[in-house]
Amino acid sequence: MELVCPAGNLPSLKAAVDNGADAVYIGFRDDTNARHFAGLNFGDKQIREGLKYARDRKVKVFVAVNTYAQPSGWSRWTAAVDRAADLAVDALILADMGVLDYAAERHPNLNLHLSVQGSATNPAAIGFMHRHFGIRRVVVPRVLSLAQVANLIENVEVPVEIFGFGSLCVMVEGRCLLSSYASGQSPNTYGACSPAAHVEWRDTPQGQETRLGGVLIERRGHGEPAGYPTLCKGRFAVEGEIRHAIEEPTSLNTLDILPGILAAGVSAIKLEGRQRSTRYVSQVTRVWREAIDACKRNPQAFRPKESWHQTLAQVSEGAQTTIGPYHRPWH
Amino acid sequence: MDSMQSQPPRPRLSLGPILYHWPREQVLDFYAEMLETTVDVIYLGETVCSKRRLLRPEDYWELAERVVAAGKQAVISTLALIESDGELKTLKRICADERFLVEANDLGALEFLEGRPFVAGHSINLYNQRTLSFLVARGLKRWVLPVELGRETAADLLAARADGVECELFAFGRLPLAYSARCFTAYNRDLPKDDCRFCCADYPDGLLVATQDGEPFLALNGIQTQSAGTHNLLPSLQEVTRMGVDLLRISPQSQNTAGIIDVFAACLTGDMDLAAGMSKLRDWTPSGLCDGYWTGQAGIANSPMERQL
Fold first, then answer.
1. A325: buried, middle or exposed (CB in 10 Å: 19+, 13-18, 0-12)?
2. From A69, A129, A331, residue closest to B181, measured CB to CB
3. Number of Cβ pairs closer than 8 Å across A and B?
4. Alpha-carbon gap, residue B120 to B91, rounded angstroms
């Protein structure tokens, strides 16, 4: 089982490599990837240096071109595919069927992974993408239970990668428009959920308010902790009660079910957080490397160390973590 | 005369699948009423939650026969999120029935429909001309534009489409914005999904989510999250006609759907002016109208055309 780590920039890439990643995933500096934030991602110089750094240490580099191209921007996506092919990256992570079709035709030897943004949650969907584009891995959305993941693995020819740690995306990725409903920009079209340029913070007598595209998505008491304002984790009024109507501001953490993940035959486990700090990348990579190695040595005796949980808790968004959808009662 | 001939034909009207969990009798009465309307195409089937089984595929096929007998086209719509073996089995069975056109709402349906004519629903991510051509080569005859895309992308795709391929717009209804494994209606009742007690039946147009300052924002419909505002392309009727859009979809709501169809039909023929139509629609929608997506803004926004009417 491969450990796939996030790298939003060159220092993070080096941190992931140094702390035990088997592969790192990165994006170009534009809207072709789903972590399109100012100051993040890779230009030509950084990508060459990053590739060399990783390869010298036998770590793979994956490039995500996982947003959806519209006709007016089409050439940016094909250019990103060509660029990744020229760089001979270890895999290109794609979501858009048109972009996959282009990549498979133009660069038949390029290793293609279906992004989580590709929204494939069942054997028929994965089979379709495999048959037509020859995808060699699928990253599944964070909506399946562990039993469903295990069943999927038994029924597809394509190796399966799952998210193990980081932000918890509650919706089927690639088909969530909540952000664009409030702001006009979505992960699919722009490469960011709840983009920072549309976020406003206001101090009012009622409390601290967070707005996205002018819509009040959170109002908290003075002194209450504030995370990144993701729309689905805001508090709203439902039948007269103010509550987290969609999801609490929790992070995903699957350390406790790692033996089950391994037994299910998961090929790779992905850590989320290209938008996070180098320190975050170092710490989560180190913990997960240790945990995976310990679990592989002796899955029956595997118990997550308290120190791992403490380290991960320090870097989690929101104070709580959850096994989320992998655990049936979450549903 | 020449300019008259170069005008594309008026868009036809379609009725989308019922997105909510209505009692069986209500569904049957609803379709009996819809058969009397001028709507040209009727989509039938459960697209949101596989636990809702008041009507089974056989019931929808039977309804589809009646739709055809009434001189309309029947299309069978499939589930938007397929996770379990049971859901996949039902999907396969629906896709194997060749009497009716099928609307794919998940990639899995494309696998079963390949080589046959099919419709790609709005939850299939068709964002560019290469995806369109790829799916046309697999059998696509009609696609519903993903709801977050606006007129610029629609125009580019319309210009690039092959002959005989139809473009449908989600023209009226609460916008389907997201799908999850979690049932949000049950979650807000503090019920687990496995014991949901079909509580979504209590909200025939979805459960309203308002912001903390009281603005209607979203509507929860089981595992689907919708907009609270009703997306409405009536203000852009002339533009979509000029562009050559083939179909306008009206998404069923529990009240006044027949009236809404009449408003669209009358505004398309010019028998009713847009301002009069808008006034009726405003009275008939639970939380106001929006059309921002069409003009490239946030979906919740109101376009200048809409504000003028």
1. buried
2. A331
3. 217
4. 14
- What's the mean pLDDT in A135-147? 96
- What whole-number distance in Å separates Cα of residue B71 and Cα of residue B37? 11
The complex's ipTM? 0.96
Whole-angstrom Cα distance, residue B260 to residue B94? 30
What's the CA gap between B64 and B98, in Å, rounded? 12
Q: Is residue A140 within 8 Å of A131, Cβ to Cβ?
A: no
What is the nearest CA distance from A320 to chain B, expressed in angstroms? 18
- The residue whose two tokens read 């979505």 is A186
Query: d(Cα A217, Cα A202) in Å, to the nearest integer?
Result: 12
- Look at residue A225 and give its three-state secondary structure: coil
Closest by CA to B112, choosing from B137, B126, B93, B99, is B93
Query: How far is Cα A292 from Cα A255, in angstroms, rounded to an integer?
Result: 9
- Rounded distance, CA B55 to CA B76, Å? 13
Longest Cα pair distance anywhere in chain B, in angstroms? Answer: 64
- Identity (one letter) of the amino acid at A256? D
Contact of B119 with B128, CB cutoff 8 Å: no
* pLDDT band per the 50, 70, 90 thresholds, residue A319: low
Cα four-point dihedral sign A171, A174, A177, A180: positive
Q: How far is B156 from chain A (nearest CA, A)?
A: 6
Least confident among A225-234, A317-326, B281-290: A317-326
CA–centroid distance for B96 within its chain: 23
CA distance A233 to A247: 5
Which pair of structure tokens corresponds to residue A252?
A: 């995903």
Looking at residue B106, the DSSP 8-state letter turns out to be: S
Q: Is A2 in contact with A20 (CB distance < 8 Å)?
A: no
Mutate to test the interface with B, among A76, A81, A96, A97 (most CBs of B within 10 A): A97
Asked if residues B80 and B43 have their Cβ atoms less than 8 Å apart, the reply is no
Q: Which pLDDT tens digit goes with each residue over B56-96?
A: 999 999 999 999 999 999 999 999 999 999 999 999 999 99
How many residues would you count in chain B? Answer: 309
- Give the CB-side neighbour count of residue B143, counting CA atoms within 13 A: 27
pLDDT of residue A315: 86
- Whole-angstrom CA distances from A59 to A2, A14, A286 are 11, 10, 15
- Minimal C-alpha gap between B123 and chain A (Å): 7
Tell me what the mean pLDDT of segment B287-304 comes to: 97
Phi, psi (rounded to 5 degrees) for A231: -55, -45
| DSSP string across A34-80 | S---TT-SB-HHHHHHHHHHHHHTT-EEEEEE-S---GGGHHHHHHH
Beta-strand relationship, B140-144 and B166-179: parallel
B107 contact partners, CB below 8 Å, separation of at least 6: A118, A119, A120, A124, A125, A128, A129, B124
In this structure, the number of other CB atoms found within 10 A of the CB of residue A37 comes to 15
Runs of H (alpha helix) within B74-128: 85-96, 107-113
The structure's pTM equals 0.97
Subunit contact B215:A189, Cβ cutoff 8 A? no
Write down the residue that tokens 């504000």 correspond to. Answer: B307
From the list A123, A144, A182, the residue facing B300 with the nearest CB is A182
From the number of C-beta atoms within 10 Å of its C-beta (0-12, 13-18, 19+), residue B307 rates as exposed
